[in-house]
């Protein structure tokens, strides 16, 4: 310990004499650590974050599968109750309805909230503690009681400490508050963000479409189970196989080929796991490249320092110091610098994670995508800092602690050896440029992808459109009253100055998905293969005009009655697929037991995501759908304005509350805002890769500049002699430039194949751009070459201005 304390004291004293050097190292390493800490925050949140419950390792999420697939599905009520009663590996099995829309009243304007309906044993199985009160009792399965999230309690009820036992209005019903969840509890789904919980027995009166409890093939429940003490996941999984076989034998019509898939509760669902992990792996690789560039940069700085300390080290060895003591001393300095960079990087990561949490997915349901710097990220940053300190500090320390004494005492450079093609510093700079080229190519691909995504023809109007939602059903409206309310609202909003047209739909395009179903033409024989999947939307009269979707044939919706034969308008892709050689107008298509007559054809639109292939789309009459198939997400008013769409939001809300003062208004946004959210993935990827690419480029340029400046300083005498013997300034200039550009060319030759390989792994995240895009793989190396040329130019200019007389006296 005394020796370590002495090394620390000496290191602090020595580093304090070189503030510029310390700043450069901390900045370089801090940027690399910040990038890694930010991405690891995402990994921690979406991969390692445990369920916010007691003993999360024994709480399992169970999904149903069919015909051996690995895709997760929910449970039907009969399958859940059978599993709950027959499985012996679990101390408790609970179920919940994942998203339940509601309108909450009380003080202030009514508010749209989303919650969950859970079995009465949900909180006991999950072992969730409460901030106030308790969870549900077994006797409360059908009683109107509610548990509030901590956020809803704070926001809506001003953290009222006397909230327990009070009654609150929820979707026209009165519920008694029995508990307030802890601040960190947002349910057991990784990104869903529910704000209340009610017993499952209330779902029939709160749900917008009534779930069927008797149907074994109606899957609507998520299921969790707590392992019994001493039971492993492997044993439980083996029992689930046996249970599935038993169910298949007892219920062959619905359960044959079915099975169960078990995983940690609160983790990524199997459906999305591979995509999310691949994206996070790509980001992790990129930020490690950034850190690698930073480490190579710092290693070059330390090598330069080591060259300047070669005489000091030789003297210390001559005075009796051991090489292990010198190595330890220099490693302590490196670790101090790395830890300083780690602290700076962690501070930057706090800002970066806050900025990334502002990105939103275009989803009409509440999602929690926030990330933060938790203890895992802090521990990872510390470990990465120590590892980086050892990585960039060991080789310079090893070389500096083993000088050739005779040469070092005479002042000769111990870090260069005659006859070497590339010095260690050259190798480090080449590696920096290689990593930077890979990073720049990936950055270029994602920026090109963002450019292509912005320019994609979405098929509908993108400006001067305001959208906001209402859901009369959660206020107790019948289907008939809902249709009347929406029709009256259209008329009122149409009279607002600057409103050009107004319409109603269930959900706007590019919301990540809505209702879809299989269709076939009535006039065609049923094919042996599966029917094509068609996207379903509701639309009122005037919807296509308001959205700016061109009508190609037929007519718009009129005021069809609910009892009239059902009609539909399809997009061009639908018409060309189902009726390739005849007019679709008047043709009939079938969705299960429902038949629609096609009355119109409109242009194709982007339905779920910007990067999708063209989908088949069918628009149903809103008036004919509100009763037979009400929208789970409510109904969205779409308003085309002559000017600023956001400016009329207050006037529209006033018209809504003039019709019903208790109506909650939500999802208010302009089409421009909606499209920005639809660009979530390309914007996120473009932003992250753009920042990391810029950091890598700057670090690589600084590294090359440092190497060339060091080379000029080491060759000052040689350059002075050349000039004194008559060398032209241009020749001296080219001599230095040639050294930098040779290193760049070597790096390009090594980096391009690596960039090609990495690009192939990114193809699934690109929009309208091939992974080996020619423009990217031409412009990125060219741009890097120009930066390298600029980094070499300044030292070359300095070399050409060397005074021969001063150079000959240089030591």
Shape assignment: globular
Number of separate strands: 22
Whole-angstrom Rg: 33 Å
- The amount of helix comes to 40-55%
Unreliable stretches covering 5 or more consecutive residues: 405-412, 414-420
What is the makeup of the main sheet?
Answer: 10 strands, mixed
Average pLDDT number: 83
* Tally of helical segments: 25
Strand content: 15-25%
Structural class: alpha+beta
Distance between the termini: 40 Å
Can you put this structure into words, describing what you see?
- Helices cover about 50% and strands about 15% of the residues.
- The protein has about 800 residues and is α+β, with helices and mostly antiparallel strands.
- Strands 1, 2, 3, 4, 5, 6, 7, 8, 9 and 10 form a ten-stranded mixed sheet that branches. Strands 13, 14, 15, 16, 17, 18, 19 and 20 form an eight-stranded mixed sheet that branches.
Task: Give a quick set of tags describing it.
alpha+beta; ten-stranded mixed β-sheet; eight-stranded mixed β-sheet; 25 helices
């Amino acid at each position: 310990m005394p020796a370590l304390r002495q090394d620390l004291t000496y290191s602090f004293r020595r580093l304090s004499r070189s503030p510029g050097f310390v700043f450069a190292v901390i900045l370089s390493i801090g940027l690399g650590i910040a990038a890694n800490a930010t991405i690891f925050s995402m990994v921690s949140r979406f991969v390692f974050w445990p369920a916010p419950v007691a003993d999360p390792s024994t709480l399992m999420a169970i999904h149903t599968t069919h015909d051996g697939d690995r895709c997760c599905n929910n449970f039907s009520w009969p399958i859940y109750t059978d599993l709950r009663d027959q499985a012996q590996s679990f101390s408790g099995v609970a179920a919940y309805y994942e998203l339940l829309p509601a309108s909450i009243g009380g003080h202030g304007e009514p508010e749209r909230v989303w919650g969950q309906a859970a079995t009465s044993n949900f909180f006991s199985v999950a072992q969730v503690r409460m901030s106030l009160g308790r969870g549900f009792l077994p006797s409360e399965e059908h009683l109107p009681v509610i548990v509030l999230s901590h956020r809803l309690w704070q926001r809506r009820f001003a953290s009222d400490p006397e909230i327990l036992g009070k009654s609150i209005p929820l979707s026209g019903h009165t519920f008694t508050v029995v508990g307030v969840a802890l601040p960190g509890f947002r349910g057991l789904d990784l990104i869903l963000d529910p704000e209340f919980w009610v017993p499952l027995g209330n779902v029939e009166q709160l749900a917008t479409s009534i779930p069927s409890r008797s149907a074994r093939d109606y899957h609507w429940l998520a299921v969790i189970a707590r392992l019994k003490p001493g039971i492993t996941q492997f044993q439980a999984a083996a029992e689930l196989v046996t249970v599935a076989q038993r169910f298949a034998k007892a219920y062959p019509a619905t359960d044959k080929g079915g099975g169960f898939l078990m995983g940690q509760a609160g983790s990524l669902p199997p459906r999305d796991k591979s995509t999310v992990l691949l994206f996070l792996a790509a980001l992790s690789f990129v930020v490690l490249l950034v850190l690698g560039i930073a480490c190579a940069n710092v290693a070059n700085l330390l090598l330069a320092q080591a060259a300047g300390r070669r005489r000091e080290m030789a003297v210390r060895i001559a005075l009796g110091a051991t090489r292990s003591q010198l190595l330890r001393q220099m490693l302590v300095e490196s670790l101090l610098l790395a830890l300083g960079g780690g602290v700076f990087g962690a501070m930057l990561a706090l800002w970066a994670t806050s900025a990334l949490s502002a990105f939103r997915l275009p989803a009409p349901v509440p999602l929690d995508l926030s990330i933060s710097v938790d203890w895992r990220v802090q521990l990872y940053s510390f470990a990465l800092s120590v590892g980086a300190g050892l990585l960039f500090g060991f080789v310079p320390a090893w070389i500096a602690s083993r000088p050739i004494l005779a040469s070092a005492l005479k002042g000769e450079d111990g870090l260069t050896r005659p006859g070497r093609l590339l010095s260690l510093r050259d190798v480090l700079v080449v590696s920096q440029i290689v990593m930077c080229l890979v990073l720049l190519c990936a950055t270029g691909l994602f920026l090109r992808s963002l450019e292509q995504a912005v320019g994609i023809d979405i098929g509908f109007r993108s400006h001067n459109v305001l959208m906001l939602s209402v859901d009369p059903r959660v206020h107790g409206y019948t289907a008939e009253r809902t249709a009347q309310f929406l029709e009256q609202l259209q008329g009122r909003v149409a009279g607002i100055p600057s409103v050009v047209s107004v319409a109603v739909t269930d959900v706007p395009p590019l919301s990540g998905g809505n209702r879809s179903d299989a269709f076939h033409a009535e006039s065609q024989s049923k094919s042996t293969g599966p029917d094509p999947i068609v996207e379903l939307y509701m639309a009122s009269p005037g919807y296509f005009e308001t959205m700016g979707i061109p009508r190609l044939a037929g007519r718009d919706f009129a005021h069809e009655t609910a009892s009239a034969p059902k009609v539909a308008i399809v997009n061009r892709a639908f018409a060309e697929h189902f009726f390739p050689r005849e007019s679709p107008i008047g043709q009939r298509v079938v969705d299960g037991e429902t038949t629609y007559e096609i009355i119109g054809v409109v242009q194709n639109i982007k339905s779920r995501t910007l990067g999708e292939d063209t989908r088949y789309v069918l628009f149903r009459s809103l008036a004919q759908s509100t009763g037979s198939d009400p929208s789970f997400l409510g109904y969205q008013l779409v308003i085309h304005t002559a000017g600023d769409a956001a400016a009329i939001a207050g006037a529209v809300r006033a018209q809504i509350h003039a019709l019903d003062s208790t109506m909650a208004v939500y999802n208010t946004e302009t089409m421009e805002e909606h499209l920005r959210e639809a660009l979530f993935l390309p914007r996120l990827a473009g932003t992250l890769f753009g920042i990391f690419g810029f950091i890598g480029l700057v670090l690589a340029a600084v590294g090359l500049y440092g190497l060339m400046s060091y080379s000029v300083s080491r060759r000052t005498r040689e350059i002075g002699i050349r000039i004194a013997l008559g060398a032209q300034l241009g020749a001296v200039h080219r001599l230095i430039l040639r050294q930098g550009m040779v290193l760049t060319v070597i790096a390009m030759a090594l980096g391009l194949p690596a960039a090609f390989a990495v690009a192939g792994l990114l193809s699934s995240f690109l929009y309208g751009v091939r992974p080996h895009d020619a423009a990217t793989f031409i412009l990125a190396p060219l741009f890097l070459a120009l930066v390298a040329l600029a980094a070499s130019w300044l030292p070359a200019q300095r070399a050409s201005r060397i005074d021969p007389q001063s150079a000959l006296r240089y030591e």
